[in-house]
């Protein structure tokens, strides 16, 4: 792998131990994946924020790197934490957990990272353009950046994304290369797709079939999907498989302007979403908590939730997780006030997958997110119901999953 003079100087330690360690990580990945050289990136998105996932060892690793002088050199945003950084007491987060979580965030702040704490950085100011090379972790954000924005990133891990942010470089391999961005699995979708939950259910099926291949979808019925449908689709494929890029014929940018189908691509047909709904939906009738916003809710999703509530008081907890920038806009428009008037909450900064839900007494959760259902069941071992936003809001108002 070729390194230029500046990169060799960093690797020799001339820019200090923190930059040296970062370039060692970037260069090692380049060697593993047989990259020809390194390329500059315009932004980074760093995962590994929730203290519930990091633990004490992860916090110490980050603290040591920051003490060595680690500082980012490109705009860098942060994945969700395990709690709302401002309203954690009101949400019942245990104090010891909160103290450690705030220490994690403070270390990242020392490194110069924007404390956005969102899995939708494209809704919080980190919006790369078509063809821009970036280094993003967080699988749903990677999928959205590659597929909907047409930027270029591999599925970085937390440390490798942070290393790229510190050096301003990543290795040129994988989805940074044209030939790796072609579709190898054609998905003919014959069934109608209505809600974002339907797109999420479709993504769950496609992700399992695609594994790490690039799917090329043909949607043969229904209205054209928007932002919320596409982010739900990509998040689901990234959770059930390892899909970091997909194309939708005639819609996503590369599928509009280029022939993105590889010769000999496999063709599959999907005419029903029943398999996904049956696989993801549990049997619990009582609901403790309804979670909307995985990935983080857009302004339109928050408004739709408020409209569905229509002033009704809730019986189960209702949390809508979102980016703080989006929360502030929703507050200015009166949307958070409408949800809070029904005893619901709009929560910034957090992902409930990394939150201490068990310690808080939650056992049965409803969500309209395939990704949320998948991880809550498999990582947090909670009982989960999966359905549309309308079903979830009804469950919140009744405290039971609708028949």
SSE pattern, N- to C-terminal? HHEEHEHEHHEEHEHEHEHEHEHHEEHEH
Strand content: 5-15%
Count of DSSP-assigned helices: 15
Secondary-structure content class: alpha/beta
Mean pLDDT comes to 96
Distance between the termini: 59 Å
Uncertain ranges: none
Task: Describe the structure using short key phrases.
403 residues; alpha/beta; Aconitase, domain 3; 4-stranded parallel beta sheet; 14 strands; 41% helix
Show the helix and strand layout.
Elements: H1 5-11, H2 17-32, E1 38-40, E2 44-46, H3 51-67, E3 76-78, H4 95-110, E4 135-136, H5 139-149, H6 158-167, E5 169-171, E6 183-189, H7 196-210, E7 215-219, H8 227-240, E8 247-248, H9 253-257, E9 261-270, H10 274-280, E10 289-292, H11 299-309, E11 317-322, H12 324-332, H13 335-341, E12 345-348, E13 364-367, H14 370-378, E14 383-386, H15 389-398
Parallel strand pairs: 2-3, 2-4, 6-7, 6-9, 7-8, 10-11, 10-13, 11-12, 13-14
Antiparallel strand pairs: 1-5
Helix pairs in contact: 2-6, 3-4, 5-8, 7-8, 8-14, 11-13
Structure description:
The chain is of the alpha/beta class. The protein has helices at 5-11, 17-32, 51-67, 95-110, 139-149, 158-167, 196-210, 227-240, 253-257, 274-280, 299-309, 324-332, 335-341, 370-378, 389-398; strands spanning 38-40, 44-46, 76-78, 135-136, 169-171, 183-189, 215-219, 247-248, 261-270, 289-292, 317-322, 345-348, 364-367, 383-386. The longest helix is centred in the first third of the chain and has 17 residues, at 51-67. Helix 3 packs parallel to helix 4.
Outline of the structure:
By secondary structure, this protein is α/β, with parallel strands linked by helices.
């Amino acid at each position: 792998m070729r390194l230029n003079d500046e990169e060799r100087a960093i690797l020799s330690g001339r820019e200090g131990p923190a930059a040296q360690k970062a370039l060692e990580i970037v260069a090692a990945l380049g060697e593993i994946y047989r990259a020809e050289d390194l390329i500059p990136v315009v932004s980074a998105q760093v995962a590994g924020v929730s203290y519930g996932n990091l633990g004490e060892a992860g916090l110490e690793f980050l603290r040591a790197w920051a003490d060595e002088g680690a500082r980012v050199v490109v705009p860098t945003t942060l994945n969700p934490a395990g709690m709302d950084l401002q309203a954690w007491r009101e949400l019942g987060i245990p104090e010891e957990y909160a103290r450690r979580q705030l220490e994690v965030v403070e270390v990242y702040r020392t490194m110069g990272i924007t404390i956005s704490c969102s899995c939708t950085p494209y809704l919080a100011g980190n919006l790369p353009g078509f063809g821009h090379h970036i280094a993003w972790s967080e699988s749903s954000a990677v999928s959205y950046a590659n597929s909907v924005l047409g930027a270029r990133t591999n599925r970085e891990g937390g440390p490798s994304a942070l290393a790229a942010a510190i050096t301003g470089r990543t290795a040129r391999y994988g989805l940074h290369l044209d030939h790796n961005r072609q579709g190898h699995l054609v998905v003919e979708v014959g069934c109608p797709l209505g809600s974002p939950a339907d797109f999420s259910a479709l993504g769950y099926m496609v992700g399992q079939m695609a594994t790490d291949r690039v799917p090329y979808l043909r949607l043969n019925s229904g209205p054209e999907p928007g932002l919320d449908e596409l982010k739900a689709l990509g998040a689901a494929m990234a959770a059930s498989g390892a899909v970091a890029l997909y194309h939708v014929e005639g819609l996503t940018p590369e599928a509009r302007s280029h022939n993105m189908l590889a010769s000999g691509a496999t063709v599959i047909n999907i005419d029903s979403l029943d398999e996904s709904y049956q696989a993801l939906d549990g049997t619990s009738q009582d609901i403790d908590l309804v979670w909307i916003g995985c990935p983080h809710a857009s302004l339109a999703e928050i408004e739709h939730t408020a409209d569905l509530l229509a002033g009704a008081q809730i019986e189960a907890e209702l949390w809508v997780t979102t980016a703080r920038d989006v929360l502030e806009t929703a507050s200015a428009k009166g949307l958070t006030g409408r949800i809070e008037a029904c005893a619901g909450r709009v929560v910034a900064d957090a992902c409930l997958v990394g939150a201490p839900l068990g310690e808080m007494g939650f056992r049965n959760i409803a969500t309209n997110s395939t990704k949320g259902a998948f991880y809550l069941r498999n990582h947090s071992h909670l009982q989960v119901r999966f359905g549309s936003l309308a079903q979830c809001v009804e469950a919140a108002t009744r405290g039971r999953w609708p028949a």
